[in-house]
Request: fold
Amino acid sequence: AQKITQTQPGMFVQEKEAVTLDCTYDTSDQSYGLFWYKQPSSGEMIFLIYQGSYDEQNATEGRYSLNFQKARKSANLVISASQLGDSAMYFCAMREADSGGYQKVTFGTGTKLQVIP
Amino acid sequence: EAGVAQSPRYKIIEKRQSVAFWCNPISGHATLYWYQQILGQGPKLLIQFQNNGVVDDSQLPKDRFSAERLKGVDSTLKIQPAKLEDSAVYLCASSPQPASGANVLTFGAGSRLTVL
Reply:
């Protein structure tokens, strides 16, 4: 089974509108973390936002917020007031401990977001 | 602080040749990761080091790929002999240890390999 599932290969959004990028995850751990990264065409992975499994409040970072629904195992990224510079690939990732107790980070397949002027 | 340094940024080789990529993590970061990202896909973990020890290399094709992290600082990933399907971006990342809480992975710019 996939650890991280991103079902939207591509999304379009009008400039200044909000957009939600979907992410579901699969883990039996109680303690884990969820991340979103942005990868522009330049290729570098840029950290956006983090949510811990025990965090009761949804994480927010500027225009980014993470809609964390633990029971549904979903961690959707919401980008408000989209800008042209938000056009990029977006990856959801999960950190969990392996059998040896080391933290492993697994990435989803990504969603390509295009912002339309 | 300085970021994660990787070199070379681009490399083109013929199949069956060898190639090596170098990574220098953020100072003090105990954990170092090598990911392979094939065009259009998400990063796939190849190998993870904790200081200079390997904690996960389950997805490393050991018949052709090798990696080392001497003295627990910089790391080298080698491919020998290369195959066409090795064409990808090789991303190095590092994180503080313990990798818990919001200790995120910081990535380098990547090394893009094209195998002809």
